[in-house]
Amino acid sequence: MSKLVKTSEQQTSNIMEKLPQEIILGILSRLPSTSLLQSMLVCRAWRRLIRDPLLVATHFSHMADKDGPSFIFQSNRPSSSYQLFFIDFSDFHSQGKVMFKKLPHLMSIYLLDSCNGLLCMRDARWIYICNPFTRVYLQLPKLVNYPAQVGHIAFGFHQTTKQYKVIQVVYLRQQVLLGGRINVATSTLVQSQVHVLTIGDPSWRHIGTLPYDLARPIPKALVNGRLHWLSKPNNDNTASIFISFDLETEQFQEMAKPDCCGSNRCFHHLMVLRGFLSAGAYHDNDELEVWVMKEYGIKESWIKEFTIGNHLPPTLQQNDLLHFNMAKARFPNSSVRVLCILRNDEILLEYLNRVVVVFDPRHGTFKELTFDAMPHWYKLVVHVGSLNWIHIPGLSLGEGHLESSGVIRDGKGNWVLGYNRFLGKCLVVVAEFWGILDGLLLLQEQGYDEVTIHSDNLEIIISISNSILEELSFNLIRRIQQILAKEEKRSLRYILREANRIANALAKMTLPNDEVLHMFDDSR
């Protein structure tokens, strides 16, 4: 036997329906991503509205064109579970403020690349595409593991074909048999294999070999639908080479370099500055010249845009100073990276994955930026904070049409009530919080003043018990904590999934598109 508890969203829906669509779109598309995510929890009508592809696309366009750049930081320490941070310079020019925000924990996976508000990440076995704000993710097909492999992974989007692609260059090292065991030789790389995956395809494609050295973690520059890298000097080639990969034709080619110095090893890195392919080059005087290609593909269009003098940030500790000097002695181009040009023409620099510095080219001054909870060592990528996602039919994502459910038992473990509700398209973590909130509201109605919550999701228990108000589920967690604060006795316990099989079975009994709360007072 089941009972129905009806919920109404008519009032909220009517308010939204009274406003013209262009006004709603204009207001919501200018809100920060975190604010939009919180608004999705107001009601299902708002959730459907904010998931609208037109709003998502317009919001992404506004976020990409705002007054300042934004970045994703990731701590390089495994002990920190590779925590992600978001830094936004939108208010830096007008107010001198920079937003530095810790993002909700996704998974203990390593940051590789960013494109159109999406991150490419990996662990020891898999590569993922994910949105760090919505925490929607896609696990990519596994590439066959080669023995003793090292490699380079890049992620990009082609505006004409509207396709996202991941490129993996796998280098194989020689192997020798010593004492009955296979060992990796310390000699140079002996072979490369280039693999490409179009997001939405079931498998990787092998497209040939690559005669360039991309084994080191080299930042890429995405311009005109092409990925660009600086191939570092190796034993076979003493000259730095600019290479590109066309995301449409899947062809590599060399790019023309600026005639900036007599040494072929002076080039530091490639980057995108205000939409142009750019390159940094060091000289014997330790100055960093930044060159910009004003007309793509035209060698003569390379011009020197500005010069950055030698600077050592004082916050680098003594052990960093030793590393800094050694790096300069071996590779002078390995110490400083140009990130972007700010709206006021100041230049953002990064030193040794440790310090972010603002350089004023008009006065030749340097200003270090520090933030609370900033990781000691980090990986940094330019990133547009948005709700963007890859919309391809048939993709299996880390979200879906989900249900919430739960079981209420008395102090002796006897069945009191079961319940479930169809939620529609949402993330798993949101469904878990809804299941707990529905149960607490039912207990309140029946006058219980003691409660113990059992969940097979450890993240849920930690978030509630430690008052961690994650942006994605802020309102839900807050409502749960407000109810628990009124209970005389309360506790939260983590249980194994096998012990929660009845609640999981109830979730499978929901009817599609039936968003009312169903209650079952009989366990049979």
From TrEMBL:
<dbReference type="InterPro" id="IPR050796">
    <property type="entry name" value="SCF_F-box_component"/>
</dbReference>
<protein>
    <recommendedName>
        <fullName>F-box domain-containing protein</fullName>
    </recommendedName>
</protein>
<feature type="domain" description="F-box">
    <location>
        <begin position="13"/>
        <end position="63"/>
    </location>
</feature>
<dbReference type="InterPro" id="IPR013187">
    <property type="entry name" value="F-box-assoc_dom_typ3"/>
</dbReference>
<dbReference type="Pfam" id="PF08268">
    <property type="entry name" value="FBA_3"/>
</dbReference>
<dbReference type="InterPro" id="IPR001810">
    <property type="entry name" value="F-box_dom"/>
</dbReference>
<dbReference type="InterPro" id="IPR044730">
    <property type="entry name" value="RNase_H-like_dom_plant"/>
</dbReference>
<dbReference type="InterPro" id="IPR036397">
    <property type="entry name" value="RNaseH_sf"/>
</dbReference>
<dbReference type="Pfam" id="PF13456">
    <property type="entry name" value="RVT_3"/>
</dbReference>
<dbReference type="InterPro" id="IPR002156">
    <property type="entry name" value="RNaseH_domain"/>
</dbReference>
<dbReference type="InterPro" id="IPR017451">
    <property type="entry name" value="F-box-assoc_interact_dom"/>
</dbReference>
<dbReference type="InterPro" id="IPR012337">
    <property type="entry name" value="RNaseH-like_sf"/>
</dbReference>
<dbReference type="InterPro" id="IPR036047">
    <property type="entry name" value="F-box-like_dom_sf"/>
</dbReference>
<dbReference type="Pfam" id="PF12937">
    <property type="entry name" value="F-box-like"/>
</dbReference>
